[in-house]
From TrEMBL:
InterPro entries: ArlJ-like (IPR056569). NCBIfam families: PRK06041.1-1 (NF004703). This is Flagellar assembly protein FlaJ. It comes from the Archaea.
Length: 532
């Protein structure tokens, strides 16, 4: 059915679907942005892999062949294209590298491919070139990461300042509506929505572009850490329940604060478990650099197998990895398949870095490389990323400590001011009704004075409570969503960090919505006149 519709649309539009070119352009732009964002880290992975396998004295065709099979790294796609040109079309490796470099849009990768081609023409041995390039890639990655952290620090502060300014604009619009009660306020409210969305979108896009790529979890479907498995089981039940409950409560008209609070409390277990897993992954990554160096040194120094070397290393100093090391050691001693045992080890740690570097180590050792040298190469690259992550985590803690109180302040000012204006409007309306009743009993100059007083008090009447209630809730929803996305972008981690920030901010918003009317009723009890 859909194929017939597609064919008819193509016939009516000269062989093209409507907006087909535009969608292709957007898809190409998105792919290029994602590729450029991952390129720096994946270049470090790829060169670490190439440097590790060169310890096995592999030939140039083997270097390109093995590297081209590592599809989990973005730059290896271009190495695979070079491999096809060489084996399928008879190009030399130098010419193939130059041809692919011309088509490459990433400047760093393009420069690397051209340098590799020049080194081949110059007769530089592959292992010397790759070792030098690995050091260069580490320096480039470190500088790019540090620059991204500095940009993120500035744009994080700018994001909060701009969002606070947008909230102040929304507050001014709300006060103006309360004072003058104009007709046709929809355009003003829509303008406020657009300002908040524009500021949030711009700030989030800039922060996403500035934040260094650091995928913490491996995302393997068949095996994962205990916390990740718990989240996967729970979210299948929790998320549909949350969506259904929210829909029902909205339909029956329950207070927005109760809905916010309920959403925050329901997804909070997912967020807490996710935060624990994120912290565990970071700690395991810090231990892995020491572990892989020790494993390589023992294997190379004593000339023993991996299973025997695991029993020799000091596990007591690797507190975060010790249970996983003991588990894989037991499996290998029982004669269980080594590949499956290490896959289980990688999966249960939940770490992306361990997943990448452990596979590099095992592949290079299986090719006959020096375990000692491989351990040093892999451990050094791992240590580089762990130290840079620590620097980023210092920024993350500062931003989160600022984000949460700022969110509470923005939502609190907005909601409390709305409740104050609503209370004032009701009080003024009651006073005016009293004046109107008194006016009929007065005459002459007294009537003129009463009319003047009623006109002066007419500012806070006719406050559109229903429209402004929807306005306040919508603005708070936009602020909560935007700040949740900002927290996840800056902190990184798996998708469960959305649950962590979402639960925290929704709970804060819900508490403010619930307590605001109570506190305003206590401290802003405006007296009315019973008689004049």
């Amino acid at each position: 059915m859909f194929e017939d519709v597609t064919d008819r649309l193509r016939e009516a539009n000269k062989g093209q679907l409507p907006f087909e070119d535009q969608l292709k352009s957007l898809g190409s732009l998105q792919e290029r942005l994602l590729e450029n964002k991952k390129m720096g880290q994946d270049l470090l992975f790829m060169y670490t892999y190439m440097a590790a396998i060169t310890t096995a004295s592999v030939t140039r065709p083997e270097i390109f062949g093995y590297t081209a099979e590592r599809f989990e790294y973005v730059p290896t796609r271009y190495i695979a294209k070079v491999e096809r040109l060489v084996k399928g079309w008879g190009y030399s490796y130098a010419d193939g590298l130059r041809v692919i470099a011309e088509k490459c849009r990433n400047e760093t990768l393009q420069s690397m491919l051209n340098r590799y081609a020049n080194s081949i023409d110059s007769g530089v041995p592959d292992d010397d070139f790759i070792g030098t390039e690995l050091s260069t890639v580490r320096e480039i990655y470190r500088n790019t990461f540090e620059q991204g952290v500095e940009m993120l620090k500035k744009w994080g502060d700018a994001y909060l300042a701009m969002l606070l300014s947008g909230t102040l604009v929304a507050i001014i619009i709300m006060i103006s509506v309360a004072i003058y009660a104009p007709d046709g306020i929809e355009s003003a409210l829509n303008t406020s929505y657009m300002i908040i969305v524009a500021i949030s979108g711009f700030g989030l896009a800039i922060m996403y572009k500035a934040v260094p790529d650091d995928q913490k979890t491996h995302g393997l479907a068949d095996v994962c850490s205990r916390e990740q498995a718990t989240i996967r089981r729970m979210e299948r039940m929790v998320l549909p329940v949350v969506a259904a409950i929210c829909l029902i409560l909205i339909i029956i008209g329950v207070n927005a604060g109760v809905i916010f609070l309920l959403v925050g409390l329901l997804i909070m277990p997912l967020g807490i478990i996710g935060y624990i897993d994120d912290d565990n992954v970071v700690n395991r990554d810090e231990d892995f650099s020491t572990f892989i160096r020790s494993l390589g040194s023992v294997m190379g120094g004593k000339g023993i197998t991996t299973a025997d070397a695991l029993q020799e290393i000091d596990k007591k100093s690797l507190t975060n990895l010790e249970p996983f090391i003991n588990s894989v050691t037991s499996k290998l001693n029982l004669g269980i398949d080594e590949g499956g045992s290490w896959k289980r080890f990688i999966g249960e740690t939940g770490s992306n870095l361990i997943y990448k570097y452990m596979n590099i180590f095992r592949d290079a050792v299986s090719l006959g490389g020096s375990a000692d040298r491989i351990g040093k190469i892999v451990g050094s690259s791992m240590l580089e990323q762990v130290l840079l992550r620590r620097k980023r985590d210092m920024l993350v803690k500062g931003f989160v400590v600022l984000l949460i109180p700022m969110h509470g302040a923005m939502v609190g000012i907005f909601v409390f001011l709305f409740e104050i204006l609503l209370t004032m409007s009701k009080a003024v309306t009651a006073v005016l009704e009293t004046f109107n009743e008194a006016t009929s009993a007065l005459s002459g100059s007294s009537s003129s004075i009463s009319g003047s007083m009623a006109g002066a008090m007419n500012f806070f009447t006719d406050f559109p409570e229903a429209e402004m209630s929807t306005y306040v809730v919508t603005i708070c929803v936009l602020l909560t969503i935007s700040n949740t996305l900002a927290g996840k972008i800056v902190a990184g981690g798996d998708r469960y960090m959305y649950y962590f920030f979402g639960s925290l901010l929704c709970t804060i918003t819900g508490i403010i919505f619930v307590i605001a009317p109570i506190l305003v009723g206590i401290f802003f009890n405006i007296p009315t006149f019973g008689a004049v």
